[in-house]
Amino acid sequence: xxxxxxxxxxxxxxxxxYMWQVEDMIRACNLDIELIQERIVNSMxxxxxxxxEIRVWYADLISKMKLEGKEKKGHLRDLDDLFIEINYLHxxxxxxxGDEKYKGIYQAAMPLMDDFKKRxxxxxxxxxEICFNGLYAKLMLRLQNKPITPETEEAFNAFAQVLGYLxxxxxxxxxxxxx
Length: 179
Prior knowledge:
The chain is mostly helical. The protein has two domains: 2-67, no CATH class; 77-174, no CATH class. The protein is built from eight helices and no strands. It has helices spanning 2-10, 12-28, 33-44, 48-67, 77-96, 100-120, 127-143, 150-174. The longest helix has 25 residues, at 150-174.
């Protein structure tokens, strides 16, 4: 929870990827708070008060996942809302603000996004979702100690550049400093 709060303030892309991982860990523990306490919370910190706070945070996430029908798959509505904001920001940077630096980063990544979209057989998602899915796939590959080809690494780097730029601009937008 403490990590999530920090990531939400500092880097929206890292926050979303972190929360996807948390959702998957909760599912891996069958949405069982006792199992989460044993396997995750107890190993995080020694301070009992912080453990209690983290347990409450996980219990709240479990409740939300159950309420929203996300026990098996999908993402919490709060994360979906962030996607809407980030996609809006993407469109604003490309169109309204005409951010040339972002346009260059985005255009360089577009062919890699198209390729990833074809390989993943996902037609109904935005380019920004492709970037997130790609970076989450990279995380999963690393956790499984699976090799990553240089071509795939190139795509992941391009996706990271897109999301990194959007994260900086998102923070500025939230601070009312986006020009």
